[in-house]
Amino acid sequence: MKTLPIQPVPSDIALGRRLRALRERRHFTLEQVAERTGFSKGFISRVERDLTSPSVQSLVT
Fold it and tell me: Which one of 12, 29, 33, 37 has the largest count of C-beta atoms within 10 Å of its C-beta?
C-alpha cells in the first residue's frame, strides 16, 4: 500500500485549491461530490488539501 504524504504536495498548479474553490462556488458539499463521482469523501478531501494527486482517469471522472 502506498503511504500518504504528511505535508501537502508542492505544486505550481495547486489543483486541490482550485477544485475546492470550484466545489464551494457551486455550493456542493464533500458528500455531494463523493456521491456524484463515486469517490470517497476522504479521497476528495485529500485531493483538495493537495495531500494526494488524483490520476488522470480520476480527473476525467
Answer: 33
